[in-house]
Design a protein that fits this description.
Layout: H1 5-12, E1 27-33, E2 40-47, E3 53-61, H2 64-77, H3 82-86, H4 90-97, H5 104-125
Antiparallel strand pairs: 1-2, 2-3
Helix pairs in contact: 1-2, 2-5, 4-5
The structure holds FE2/S2 (inorganic) cluster (FES) (2 copies).
Residues 37-39, 62-63 line the site of one FE2/S2 (inorganic) cluster.
């Protein structure tokens, strides 16, 4: 199956790969897995005192579409509030990357990873 140019771009030049120190309470970490294929995605957000996501990192063990989806969302969440980040939908990711139907679950993984990262951040602050 052919990947779209945008998937290839993110796959070959992934943005924001890596990790933050997860002990820091300005960091939210989301770790999610896709039962369908066994792929795993870790996404982290760094939130400033105004509740704005100022930086993000990811590590994904999975297919090109999963890597591209996580790379894309690390770009999208930067500068967003937590609520704005929660509003990112897998359909937006799938549309931006022109994912075919069999790869939609890769974009769902990225949406789930953002939600998990925000939930982790909120639980640390609570
Ligand atoms: Fe998991 Fe894509 S099926 S690598
Ligand atoms: Fe499973 Fe992409 S996350 S095939």
């Amino acid at each position: 199956m052919a990947y779209s140019d945008k998937v290839l771009d993110h796959y070959e030049n992934p943005r924001n790969v890596g990790s933050f120190e997860s002990g820091d309470d300005s960091i939210g970490t989301g770790m999610v897995g896709a039962p369908a294929c066994g792929d795993v995605m870790k996404l982290q957000i760094k939130v400033n005192d105004n509740g704005v996501i100022e930086d993000a990192r990811f590590k994904t063990y999975g297919c090109g579409s999963a890597i591209a989806s996580s790379s894309l969302v690390t770009e999208w969440v930067k500068g967003k509030t937590l609520d704005q980040a929660l509003a990112i939908k897998n359909a937006d990711i799938a549309e931006e990357l022109a994912l075919p139907p069999v790869k939609i679950h890769c974009s769902i993984l990225a949406e789930d990873a953002i939600k998990a990262a925000v939930a982790d951040y909120k639980s640390k602050k609570a």
